Amino acid sequence: MAGESLRPRWGQPLTGIVSFVVFFLVAWGTWYVFSDPRGPVGWFPYPFVLYLAMMILVGLWQHMLLGDWPFQNLPQPARGVVETGVNLVLVWFVIHVIFDKVLGLGFNFLSQENLNHLAAAGRAIQADGTPMALDAMKQKHFAESAVVAFVLIGFYSYPFVTILFGKWPIRPSDLTQPRAGLAELGWCSFLTVFFYTTLIVPFWGATFNKVFLSSIALNNPWWSTIVGFGHLHWVFGFWEWMIIVLFMTANVWRGKPWSAIPLPQPWKGSVSFALNVVLGYAAALACVSLAGRWLPAQTLAELTEKNDLTRFLWYHAAEIAGFTLMPFLIWHHYFDDMVPMKDKDAWSAFAFRTLGVLVLCAANYYVFYYANWGFWGLGNAHMAELAERFPKGESLVWNFWWIIPLLWNEWFFHKWPFYVHEHH
C-alpha cells in the first residue's frame, strides 16, 4: 500500500521463526482434522486434494489478479477473515457450479457428478462391455483428478502474466479494479485453456479409451512418442518445476535473472517464459536421472518389475520440487530475504538464497521420507516400510497444504500479526 511499510514485530530472525512455527502448527492441526486417516474427517487424498488445490488457485485470483478487491481497505484482521470466507464460497462455486454444472454440460471428464450419474444409471460401459459400478466410479475420481490437473496448469498460467510479463497486455492502462482483474482473469483463462488442452486433455482421452468403450472425441498423449510413455505425470514433473522457477523469481530471486533482460514487453516476458520452460524441464530431468542414486533398491526393483519406474520418477520429480515451496516462500516473506551480504539484490545474495533453498529442500525431503514424517506425522499408513514410502508418499499434497496458512496470512491478512504496519 502507498505510504505504508511493514516492520517485523520482533525483529529478525525471531519474527521468521515464530511465523514458521505458527504456520506449521496450523497446517498440521488442520491436516489432522480434515485429511489424516486418524482424524475425524479423513478426506485423504480425495476430495481433500481437489479443495486444497482450488483454494490456492482462487486465492491467487483474489490477491494477485483482483488486488484483494473489494476488501482491500478493510482493517486487519477483518479483511483476512472476510477474504478467507469469500475464498471458501468461491471454491465451492467453482467446483460444484462452474465445473460440475456448466463445463460439465459439455465435458463429462470435468464433472464427477455427471460421471457418478452415468454409473448410477448403468450407462458407464467399460471396455469389456460391463457397466462400472457407482462405488468404483467414485473411487476412480476421474473428474476430480482432471480438475486438479486444471489447477496444476493454472498455478503457472495465471501468475506468469504478472511475474514475467508485468501484467501485459492489461497493464499499463488506466483500468481500475475490478475491471483490470477481470480482464487479466479472462486473458489468463484463455492461456490456461490453451495449455490444458495441449498438455492435459490427451491423457484423459487415453484413460477413457482404455477404461470405457472406445471414443475418438479426445486425442491420445502426443508425448508418448517423444518420452516413451503417455502418462500425465510427465507433465506434472516439468510443469511443477516451472512453477517453482516462476515463484522463486517473485520471491527469493527478487526478480532475477529475468530483470537483467533489456527488452520491452512482451518480448522480455516471452524470452523469460522460454527460459523458464528450459530451466523447469532441465530440473525435472535432473531429478529423474539422479533419484535412483538415493531411492531404496527394493523400491526401484519393484517399480521396474511393474513397468512403472519411468512414470513414478517423473511424478517424484514434481514431489521433489514441492519440498522447495515452504523454504523459499517463508525465506522471502517472513525472513525478509536475509543474507550475510549487505546488498540483498547482489548476485552473490541471489546465489546464496538459491543454494540455501536447495539445501533446505533436501532436508525437508529427508524428514518426510527417511525420518518418516509422512507416516507418524500425517498418518499415511502405507509409509511404514521404507521401500513403500516413495511410490505413494503424497508429499506434494502436504507441501501445498503446508503453505496455505503462510499464503493466506501474506495475501489476505497482510502479515498480521507478525508484522507491524507503519504509515508515513
Structure characterization notes:
The protein is globular, with a radius of gyration of 22 Å. It is built from 19 helices and 2 strands. It is 61% helix and 2% strand. With 424 residues, it is mainly α. The mean pLDDT is 95. The longest helix is centred in the first third of the chain and has 25 residues, at 78-102. α6 packs parallel to α11. It has 2 domains: 1-34 and 235-407, no CATH class; 38-222, no CATH class. The termini are close together. Strands 1-2 form a two-stranded antiparallel sheet.
Give the tags.
single chain; 424 residues
Question: How do the helices and strands line up, and which of them pair or pack?
Answer:
Layout: E1 4-8, H1 14-34, H2 48-65, H3 78-102, H4 112-120, H5 134-140, H6 142-157, H7 160-163, H8 179-199, H9 201-211, H10 224-227, H11 233-250, H12 267-290, H13 297-305, H14 309-322, H15 325-333, H16 347-369, H17 373-376, H18 386-389, H19 395-411, E2 419-423
Antiparallel strand pairs: 1-2
What pattern of helices and strands is seen along the backbone? EHHHHHHHHHHHHHHHHHHHE
SS strand fraction: under 5%
Query: How many separate helices?
Result: 19
Poorly predicted residue ranges: none
| Straight-line distance between termini | 11 Å
User: What portion of residues is helical?
Assistant: 55-70%
Query: How many individual β-strands?
Result: 2
Note the overall shape.
globular
Radius of gyration: 22 Å
**Into how many domains do the coordinates divide?**
2
Class by SSE composition = mainly alpha
Biggest β-sheet, characterized?
A: 2 strands, antiparallel
Lateral strand order in the biggest sheet: 1-2
> Quaternary arrangement of the chains shown?
single chain
- Mean pLDDT, to the nearest integer, reads 95
